[in-house]
Amino acid sequence: MSAVTRAEEPVTWSEGTWTTPPHAAVEQDGMLRVTAVEGSDAWRITSYGFVHDTEHALLAPIPDGTAMEVAFDATYEAQFDQAGLFVRVDETRWVKAGVEFSDGDLQLGAVVTDGMSDWSLAPVPEWLGRRITVRVSRDGNALTVRAGADDEPLRLVRVIPFAADLDAAAGPFVCAPTRAGLTVDFASWRRGAADTALH
């Protein structure tokens, strides 16, 4: 049996609350088109020295034992254009996972922040122009991040320590640190049961 049962219960866009409102968010035909503000980003201290807390993340509760996933389309053109799924406890503890245009390539990765941020990336140039799904599963003492393009199986991205008693929220996010005009079309936002196993 697969460790991943794809989430089927829709989360309505109106259930979420923005961490920072985007330039625009327009619901049409069940999708949500989000246009980022230039300079929006999420990062804390490491290497760069700055704190950015201006991501556009639309969040709803993600209790222990559940999973959440988003599917989206975007045209990535500028350094650090990014979209995916954000998990937030507070301003110093959060995770962003998804795809990001960095140094000329589309990259799959995650930033895990607990006081300070870290960053892991792997190139996925073959995902350009395709619909991306990012999934976060919360079970016990961990978050498990998976992602995939189109209808391909989701691949394991990262396993993150995450205490079961933390009050957290999660949902789609967009950031455009270096330009105006990044628009991401979120096709779906769903929740379901946590993954049954890692492999």
From TrEMBL:
<protein>
    <submittedName>
        <fullName>DUF1349 domain-containing protein</fullName>
    </submittedName>
</protein>
<dbReference type="InterPro" id="IPR013320">
    <property type="entry name" value="ConA-like_dom_sf"/>
</dbReference>
<dbReference type="Pfam" id="PF07081">
    <property type="entry name" value="DUF1349"/>
</dbReference>
<dbReference type="InterPro" id="IPR009784">
    <property type="entry name" value="DUF1349"/>
</dbReference>
